[in-house]
Amino acid sequence: MPANRVHELTMVRTRVAKKDPAAIYHLGYQYYYGKCGLQRDMRKSVDLWTESAELEGVGQDEAKAVEFFTKAAMRGHAESRRNLGCFEGGKGGTTNDRAVRHIMISAKMGYTEAIESIKIMFLKGNATKEQYAEALNGYQVVEEMKSHDRDEETWIYKLKRALYPPGQLLIPPHLITFLD
């Protein structure tokens, strides 16, 4: 396990010992997905999430959550798109089609957990074999397109957008006098 993961786990466990609800939730997530070198343990993750919820003391606002997930999904955030699908799927009934569509879009954006979600939906009979295959194919296309250079260029583009918002010059001010 990389040193930064060991350090992360140590910090999280320190905060868990102090009954920090966010840290307890995070540790539950790590157990659920078997991250940070932890063995996958569903029971432990549910216990941790329950403890976190009991400590939190903050009410849940589903309408606000859906609003924020929708805004993020419309801006291309794959995890939020999948979360919308899970929310729709949790309603049951006629919303399963919407749930499948959200999760398929997320999978086609390259979000790994979306593939797991659509697989579970397929195994439970909530998604068709064709839908599962389409999502998996879309995910694989994105994976094949990934490269270190492309990721680096994306990072540089995002940095430029942050430093020089639309409508502003992309030329650093100290070079403007040089160009005149």
Description of the structure:
This protein has helices at residues 3-17, 21-33, 42-56, 62-74, 78-91, 96-108, 112-123, 129-145, 148-163, 173-179. The protein is an all-alpha fold and 180 residues long. The chain folds into three domains: 3-56, no CATH class; 62-145; 152-179, no CATH class. Helix 5 (78-91) packs antiparallel against helix 6 (96-108) and helix 7 runs antiparallel to helix 8. The longest helix is centred in the last third of the chain and has 17 residues, at 129-145. The chain is globular. It starts with a helix and ends with a helix. InterPro entries: Sel1-like (IPR006597), TPR-like_helical_dom_sf (IPR011990).
Topology (SSEs and partners):
Elements: H1 3-17, H2 21-33, H3 42-56, H4 62-74, H5 78-91, H6 96-108, H7 112-123, H8 129-145, H9 148-163, H10 173-179
Distance between the termini: 54 Å
Series of H and E elements: HHHHHHHHHH
Tell me the β content.
under 5%
Q: What structural class results from the helix and strand content?
A: mainly alpha
Say how many strands there are.
0
Short description:
It is built from 10 helices and no strands.
Question: Key terms for this structure?
Answer:
Sel1-like, TPR-like_helical_dom_sf, 180 residues, mainly alpha
